[in-house]
Each structure stands twice: as structure tokens, then as C-alpha cells.
Design a protein that fits this description.
This protein has nine helices and two strands; from the N terminus they run ααααααβααβα. Strands 1-2 form a two-stranded antiparallel ribbon. The longest helix is centred in the middle third of the chain and has 31 residues. The N and C termini lie far apart (95 Å). It is elongated, with a radius of gyration of 23 Å.
Length: 244
């Protein structure tokens, strides 16, 4: 009797394993529950954004100039302390903490960009081409990071919701979603994929190989292209005028 029970239990275990293997083969990783993605990439890029903010001329930043970067570092420290290795779904307040961090970075860079554009239009900024290009480049690069964070934090409810695999419809369509045979079976979008999306949208001013599907994604990409275009055109035009 005991041998028969053990044999039945072993068969059930094998069946469960086959079902799990079949599920992994049939359902792509981005549609099922998975482990949260590693945190190192998004942490490193946020630290780069804070560094770029600290290098901007103080007249373009909110005073005192160190206030917003310190707040950003404090919010980032809270996120890292709660999820040091992976971005995993634990408590809802972590998502709000992440959104607050992105809002502060967006505010800091938006203020710097607005003051730079106003100074260029009024003729109070851009007396030297070299510093102007460095300032404009820093704001442009931070803008790429800002929108990458928004895309990453918003697509299918953010990285924590994506790890649960509850949301069926994606806001961004990556190539690996259309052609899963071109990617490993465990592929799913991570922060670096959204950073690439943001960079190409800022340089091409249009979608490249990642297509926005939801209306908010289209509007956000349109806003990023507009900000990038205005910044690049005004800064480059002013720099060329100075050099000539």
C-alpha cells in the first residue's frame, strides 16, 4: 500500500513538472509571473542623472542647487534598502516611492531645460559655445533618462506589476514580443530596453523598432520628441551662431 502511494505521488510530481515546463514553453516570460529584474541598471542610471544635475550651472537649477539631488538620493536609498538586488513586488508604497523619485528628477530637469530655453530666446544664455553645448548635452541626456524611467515605470503597471504577469496588454511592443523565436525563452523587457527606446526616440524623434500601443505611451513619446527637438535646435543654433 505504501509503495502504491509513493508511486502515485511520484507520478503526480512528474505530471506537475511537465505542466510547468509546458507553460513555460507556451507562455512567454513577459506574460507570466517571473522574478523581478536586477536593480543595478536603473540605480546606476539614476546616479548618472543626479551627477549631471550637479554639473549644471546653478542659475538653471532650483536653489539651493543641491536640494533636489539630495532628495533624489534619499528616495533612491529608500528603494535600494527595500529591494537591494531586484525590483520585486512587495508593498504598494514602494511603487509610490519610485514614482516620487521620477517626479523629482523630472521637475529638476524640466526646470533646467525651461530656464535654458528662456535664456537662449532672451539672449541671456549662451555667450560661450563650449559651456553651452555641455549644458545642453547634460540636459538632453538627463531628459533621455527621465523618459526611460517613465516608460519603465508605466508599461503594464511598472516593473513590480510586470513581475506578477497579471496584465495581458502591453503599452510598448518590442521586437521579441512579435518574434519570440529571436529571443531566449526567458526574455522580458528590462530597464535597459526602455533606456534604448528613450534614446532612439530622442534622436530619431519617432518610434524605431519599439512601437507604442496605448494612447498614453504615444503622447509621452510625442512629448519627449518635442522637448528633445526644441532643446537640440536652440542649443545647436546658438552654438553655431557664436562660432561664426
Amino acid at each position: 500500500m505504501s509503495d502504491g502511494t509513493d508511486d502515485a505521488e511520484s507520478r503526480l510530481v512528474r505530471i506537475e513538472r511537465l505542466l510547468q515546463t509546458g507553460e513555460r514553453d507556451l507562455i512567454p516570460a513577459w506574460r507570466r509571473a517571473t522574478r523581478g529584474e536586477p536593480r543595478w541598471a536603473v540605480t546606476a542610471v539614476i546616479l548618472l542623472a543626479v551627477t549631471l544635475q550637479l554639473t549644471l550651472p546653478h542659475r538653471l537649477t532650483l536653489q539651493p542647487y543641491w536640494a533636489l539631488p539630495v532628495l533624489e538620493l534619499a528616495l533612491l536609498a529608500g528603494l535600494v534598502a527595500a529591494n537591494p538586488r531586484r525590483v520585486e513586488p512587495r508593498t504598494s508604497w514602494l511603487r509610490w516611492l519610485g514614482l516620487a523619485l521620477i517626479c523629482v528628477i523630472s521637475l529638476a530637469n524640466g526646470l533646467a531645460a525651461a530656464r535654458l530655453v528662456a535664456g537662449l530666446v532672451n539672449g541671456t544664455e549662451g555667450s560661450d559655445a563650449g559651456p553651452l553645448l555641455l549644458t545642453g548635452g547634460g540636459i538632453w541626456l538627463t531628459n533621455v533618462i527621465v523618459f526611460a524611467l517613465w516608460y519603465w515605470e508605466s508599461d503594464r503597471g511598472g516593473p513590480m506589476a510586470r513581475a506578477l504577469g497579471n496584465r495581458q496588454f502591453a503599452d510598448f511592443l518590442f521586437v521579441q514580443m512579435q518574434s519570440p523565436e529571436l529571443a531566449p525563452p526567458d526574455w522580458e523587457p528590462a530597464f535597459l530596453d526602455y533606456l534604448y527606446l528613450s534614446f532612439t526616440n530622442s534622436t530619431a524623434f519617432s518610434p524605431t523598432d519599439v512601437m507604442p500601443l496605448s494612447r498614453w505611451a504615444k503622447m509621452l513619446m510625442m512629448l519627449q520628441s518635442t522637448v528633445s527637438l526644441v532643446t537640440v535646435v536652440l542649443v545647436v543654433a546658438r552654438a553655431v551662431n557664436i562660432l561664426h
